[in-house]
Amino acid sequence: MEHARDAGADPLLAFAQVALGDLAIGIDTRHVVRALARPSTLARLPRSHGAIDGVFSDGAQAIPVVDLRKWMGEAADEPPAQILVLGTQGRCVGLAIDAVRGLVRARTSQLQRVHHGDVDDDFFHSIAPAADGSLLSLLDPLRLMERVQAWTASAGGEAFQTEIAAAAPAPVQALVRIGAAVLALPAAMVAQVLDRPEAQPLLGAGRELLGMIQWRGRHVPLVDLGVLLGLESGPAPLVAIVAQDDLLVALPIDEVVAVRPLPAGSAAASGEAGIDHPMVRAIALLGDEAEQQRVLQIDAGALLRTHAAPGLSLQEHSGNASGTSAKRAPAHVVFDAGRRWAIRMAALEAILPLPETTDGDTDAMPTFAWRGRSLPLLDLREASDDAHACQGPQRVLIVRHADRHAALRVHDVVELLSANTGELLQFQAAGGARVRMITVGEGAKRTSYPVLDLDTLPFFTRS
Asked: What is the value of pTM for the model shown?
């Protein structure tokens, strides 16, 4: 109950992070109406302030566009590619921006006012911290409109105020693109959008589980939503962190399209639109009939319940009330196979150098001679274009599992993790895959390795 009172007194706010040149701007999502591509032409207003780029029509609404670079006296060779439509107190204005970078969440206690005087030009008077440690300049939309003296309230005034008032209670959505598909995620559940980090792969996981990434010291499953929904997509450059309470998933995405509420009445049941999937709540149809865009509304709660990994998402104690399976780890050996893995010391019989065959071709070696026996040689090395990757020491790990012996070919043995020096975390992934990771170190030196489960190697699962 104490936590609930604190959260109510210090609410969590969501800010759309947008870029304009090298300026990182944060805008409270409650003031964001929509984001759209810049029209090819803008109507000019004679004798308008230099910061006004022009006016365009958004349906029946005329929207003036403000280019802050002109206001700040900066060079503006190319017009920004997008416009963010802002609405507050029944007024509306368009802000010229280069791109929407994602969402940043911060509590009101984290916001800091820097400019304290009542100066007309202070439409940037406060800052908010982003997850990467940088600072966002927070835009005050109402002060901007008043200083530039540019806004509209529709032809009759009341109609637009009614539209804004009706849209305000609607949950703000983060519209993201995966391949050619646009999906809507509740903006309040998108903790951050960041450049895609390298993932630790997990043997035996389904196609939708691409591995684990670390985010703010926590282990997060990287889930391919495109595979889950049967969408065609390529390697995505960004990752959206979806969070609720202690549940986290990371979703590869191509871009953030917009941060906005979906219009009332735009959604149809997913089955009616030809998509029947438990992760898709509904389909929203945006735009006019000539250029309608389908937006898949994702059930983020169902996504988290199915694919989050609480046993790997919690970073604090080995015992907790959320069902986390964590304990002090027995001895492990860390090896390099293109990526670093850990294997239980108890499964190892020997660590040996890889001998050259008589013709010098070690790649063709199908078996490995050990103690008068011929063991299958299982190559765990990842395919690589790096010619240097195979020039270093080559090692063979002799393992015993399920009353069978095998030789595992790796690049090298890196480290011995003695018993009780690390924490062993495990969870059951969607589809039944069992995932284990061992974490060692503290703070910034905290490192995690996926643990090789020998049951995932076909040799040990054959009857």
From this structure: 0.52
